[in-house]
Amino acid sequence: MNIEDVLRDTLADMAHEEPPPAPERFLRAVAPRPRGARRRGMALAAAAAVAVLAAGTGAAVRGMSGERLEPAVSTGPMTRATGEATASTEPGRADVGVIVKEGLRLADVLRKFAKASGRPLEEWERAARNVSELGLPDYANGSLEGFAFPGVYQVAPGPRPELVLAGMVNLHRGTADQLGLVEGARRLGRSPRDIMIIASIVQAESSSRQDMPKVARTIYNRLGHKPPMALNMDSPLMYALGKYSVAASREDLKSRSRYNTYRYKGLPPGPITNPGRDAIEAALRPATGSWLYYVEVDPKTGATKFAGSRAELERLLTEREGRTRAGS
Known about the structure:
single chain, disordered N terminus, two-stranded antiparallel sheet, alpha+beta
């Protein structure tokens, strides 16, 4: 079996349908198909047109069209520290590597791709709104925010934005299937959309991967508390206001946005970041505990501790104040 046969079989497994046509045909115009088939075809085209090293998976898919299958990271030097894109140094190629970190907002993802591809930002924004082309799951409610899956994307010159974004959605779908998102949500008495909203907050609020299941449990404990409690988390409000501060100001708290979790109880209306696999898994499998609060007790290291009562919370706040003073 040659490498193109391997790719076709792999893509067919991802789509749960018959093997797709030969890779060189993916980007050709084809006759109109039923709506569902068109969505699946778009996702397959995106998988073939965009090379991806999904964050944390170690698996790569390179668009074929006469190319060989190889790890996306080998096509050129990509600066992981900054997430900046770099052009491939491979002879005869001009692919661009784009690192999409976990927790980026969609607006930042689109700016990153616009800069890397040379195509105007307006084209990427228009593509993100053209949701019929992206193969979004039903629980996305017609919005790409939360479903542009993080990863290292190797993008060919002058990419069609819809294909790149559909490729990101395709990776979300694959990860969701692996993690059992729909079944896990049902087990928790939540909708898949709820899980993605919670995962996006977990991604924004966690200082480390290890803290994610505890942050998720804290969210669930607040949502299920009797009497009802507000989430009282800054990250959804900062998202609504287009800010990147870690703490809301008094003026911010006056916002009437539904993302103001100080004013409104329950979850915000939608995801606030594009979470990675770890955050989604934490939302599906939260730690066991009675925590209602968490405090970053060491601003230098991001060390976070969790509390189940106001008294414990006060002790953690005192600890943070002491460490802050000692470090100043």
